[in-house]
Amino acid sequence: MSCKVWAHRGASAYAPENTVPAFRMAMEMGADGIELDVHLSSDGSLMVIHDSTVDRTSNGSGRVVDMTCQELKKLDFSYGMAEYEGARIPTLKEVYGLIKKSAMTVNVEVKCDEVMYPGIWDKLIRLEREMGMQGRIIYSSFNHYVLLKIREIDPDARIGLLYSNAMVDPWVYADHLKADAIHPHCKAALLCPGLMEGCAQNGIDVNAWAADTEQDMTALIEKKANALITNSPDVALGLLAR
Length: 242
Ligand code: G3P
Ligand code: CA
Known about the structure:
- This protein is of the alpha/beta class.
- The protein has helices at 20-29, 69-73, 92-99, 120-130, 144-153, 170-176, 186-191, 195-201, 214-222, 233-241; strands at 4-8, 33-40, 46-48, 105-110, 137-141, 158-163, 181-184, 205-209, 227-230.
- The chain has a single domain (4-37, 103-241), classed as TIM Barrel.
- Strand 8 (205-209), helix 9 (214-222) and strand 9 form a beta-alpha-beta unit.
- The mean pLDDT is 97.
């Protein structure tokens, strides 16, 4: 099976990250999936945004957890890209609605790093079922307790363990947590001896992120990663087509 290409925050090299235009572009490019980040608004909506505040990516300021969905929706998320002026923050429900008719996988990264969102696991599984997205989603997080919580609520939910720096024998840890996948930074994946073999032998997928140079993409493809997560899905798809 060839390496899959997941668009990181959508086709974020070309359109504002984590917005509908970025996800639509990924779909049009032929990506196999999208990666996105989720936080909770003050009124409990699942909002697609990377940071815990809106400061970097919008014309507003403040924490997501302190603003309602309606307040967040008033902000401009074009992130300095004039042609996307007026881009809004999407809810996770809106993104599911957009990609539901495609065959794309959605990698939902649950952001419980700076702010903990108690109960976000219930909302995620409820929405997955309501939108008929079962089997299409893999949840990841740097907070592995959150992934265990998701798995506790839905034993069929797929979970991927996010990490940044090289770990020794990560498949042992993944096997211990009964994870479906590891999501290492691409350098951590490429620098860990025996990682691909160890994961393959234990039935654990390797979905590596920050794969944004042709060199890293090529190395991951050659090493038979399950998926590479990139800001430039068109480049990765071009390499795979060659
Ligand atoms: O899910 C992979 C990657 O997105 C994790 O890092 O900071 O881009 O969310 P970050
Ligand atoms: Ca992410």
